[in-house]
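PT: before anyone asks, these are the final sequences, not the draft ones from last week. 709 residues across everything. Please model them as a single complex and drop the result in this thread when it's through.
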Amino acid sequence: MQLGDRVRLGLAVGVAKTVTAIVKSLRLGAASVLPGEISRRLHPRLLPLLFTQVSKGVILIVGTNGKTTTSLLLRTILEDQGYRVTHNASGANLINGLITALLANTNLTGKLTADYAILEVDENILPLVLKDCQPQYIVGLNLFRDQLDRYGEVDTISQRWQKAIHPLPKDTVIVLNADDPTLSYLGQQLEQKVVYFGLNEPQLYLEAIPHAVDSIYCPACGHLLDYQGVYLSHLGDYSCPSCGFSKSKTAVNSQEWSQILIGVYNKYNTLAAGLLAQEIGIDTNSIFETIKNFKAAFGRAEELDVEGKHVRILLSKNPVGMNETIRAVNDIKKAQKSSVTLLVLNDRIPDGTDVSWIWDVDTEELVKLGGTLVVSGDRVYDMALRLDYSKSEQDNHVELIVKEDLQDAIATALECSPQDETLHILPTYSAMLEVREILVGRKIL
Amino acid sequence: MELIIGWLYPNLMSTYGDRGNVICLQRRCQWRNIDVSIVSLDRAAGVESFDDVDIIVGGGAQDRQQEIVMRDLKGIKAEALRTKLESGTPGVFTCGSPQLLGHYYEPALGQRIEGLGLLDLVSKHPGVEAQRCIGNVVFEITASPLAEELQTMLGEKPIVIGFENHGGRTYLGKVSSLGKVIKGYGNNGEDKTEGAFYRNAIATYAHGPLLPKNPFLADWLIQKALQKKYQTDITLTKLQDELALAARKSMLQRLEFNDFKTKV
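LR: through. Structure below.
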């Protein structure tokens, strides 16, 4: 790095640290975005410069669902090996959030002190990041329909990824989900080193392809794909009867891996982080050890004890994610260990302002098993309406409780939940932050 | 009594919770002890499946899916759909599907996509740089005789609440607009019109989905379908719609509050 660059970088860092201190001292929040925004104005090529400073490598995590949990597991694996890791705050996955995370580990002489940077990147800004930054690793988790009010369509996103990854050095390691046809196809088009994870556990196949599915068409020729079985949404074992496109071969045998947390979706998150750690050169037994001791990121299958009651928060922010959290809750309901569920639907910017997605969720599955459903959030009546329409003639044993006030809703749900059971809370993103603030009694972002 | 709901391409045309319209029609029939079945009018369905359908439902598609739909629909299936709608079979077309029923759609990039020409309207995308029309939308139904019939049913002006998200702008020819925009963009953000109404077909950019939040439209479709099928006057029993009413009230209050804020 040239001296001029180092001075300007030092200046940017100084300003960023000052802004962080001010934001925190005034209790305006966790300062996960603003310092990046301000220092980027002081140095336009800040992000690429910071990338080159990370001593062992920058890892980008992209995908619709699972970024935070995968990042946190990977971070824990690396830290258990003694590496210093920097990681952007959840939700701060646009350019300014990435810069803020890297600056936090940079000193006033412009020197970054992390071995690895794990950066969750919003699926739509990946091309923007790759335009002038070179990561050593990219993990592609999945591509689902999410917040169509903000973004375009699934097909165009993967095409943009391919164009953006194409010019990267050939030794860049790309870890992709083979069970997602869009990503499998993407990998087959790339010249970089591509390795795949995926499931080979037919006993986990769903009975039918859920309604909330985007990609059952062959990404190569547009023909309807032939599915041997589906694990969740459009992730599964498939091939194209027309052009011969099929699932890429995986580098891990999922049956040999235990998983973190609960739910099939966390099997994928476990394999993604585990495979990347293997690529970095960490031995498999150490990875297994970290998986065994892993604790959840906030709101992602996070467990809390509140007033003597056991609570599990399952972030549910899009149709695929919510179908999976319902599946996980139902497994526990069937074992008679949970009868109360609290659903909180908000429609703020981080949630997406369009709540029509709840009609793509198979809420019928949740209602079918009965119990008590408490509803709250900015759009409490829209969620209540969805659940009401989910009842079939035989489902009259479900009790629907509507509470506009979230505090009241949480208190009611806790009260209804028996002592030896788990209360499950399914919130959208901003709702999850609010729920947690109430339960833990302090702000987290 | 029984009704058959024909659902156009459930897998391809279902972007923004549009299946909620089908669920809503189905449940509101069941709650009234009207037998109801759903037929998929998709690629596997033969043209004869259109014959027995009493209500037609269509939702929005992504661009690539819309192309697949158009390829399959062209020809005899399009003709069958036209015959149904011309003969007064009630239909509800939301999100992108009105574009498909018009003469053509000009996307931001690439070639003009020919529509079915059932409705006298055209849709154009003003270019990749143009802002999409996104947000909560409220409009009053003004199309005759729909507006009068709904007014009689409701005892008040029929106000629709939904969410719109479209890049294309729609311009009406001779077809009458479905309603007048109170809040939001509507067909094109310029002339305050929203949607189109022809025979008994309702076309609108509003999703949300449309029917659960505006149950009077669902009931109107069911009533029309029964009257057409059984050739007799039918009055539906009233249902408990407290949750829908509460959801409507809360959104209207919020939007009025926004109005208030911009005035200050």
